[in-house]
Amino acid sequence: MNIFSLVPGDELPYRVTIDGLSGAGDTPVRAICAALSAGGRIPAGMRDGKVAARYLFWHYDPHPGWVELIGALERNKFPCEEVDNG
């Protein structure tokens, strides 16, 4: 399960918890990559969102949590930031 949160005004306002791994960053991609890198799910130092998304796609079986992360990495937005204009 993924938990995304924003702490406005904080130095690292984007916070994420992914399967018990926590990360924080100044952008959604940096927060997600910090958590995944610290937990050994992506190579250490990987910080490009599209590269990390491809890595997840090719190295893990798909499930809703990974699909959600891949979307956030590609758009550099947390799901809670998405606006439905339809």
Care to describe what's here?
The structure is a single chain. This protein is an alpha+beta fold. 40% of the residues lie in helices and 17% in strands. It has helices spanning 28-38, 49-59, 64-75; strands at residues 2-6, 14-18, 21-25. A three-stranded antiparallel beta sheet has the order 1-2-3, covered by helices on one side. α2 (49-59) packs antiparallel against α3. The longest helix is centred in the last third of the chain and has 12 residues, at 64-75. The chain is globular and about 35 Å long. The N and C termini lie far apart (27 Å). The mean pLDDT is 92.
Spatial order of strands in the largest sheet? 1-2-3
Low-confidence stretches: none
What is the terminal-to-terminal distance? 27 Å
Sheet/helix structural class: alpha+beta
Rounded average pLDDT: 92
Task: Kindly provide the radius of gyration, computed on alpha-carbon positions and rounded to a whole number of angstroms.
Answer: 12 Å
Question: What is the general shape?
Answer: globular
Count of discrete alpha- or pi-helical segments spanning 4 or more residues: 3
Sheet with the most strands? 3 strands, antiparallel
What is the number of beta strands? Answer: 3
Helical content class: 25-40%
Strand content: 15-25%
Order of helices and strands: EEEHHH
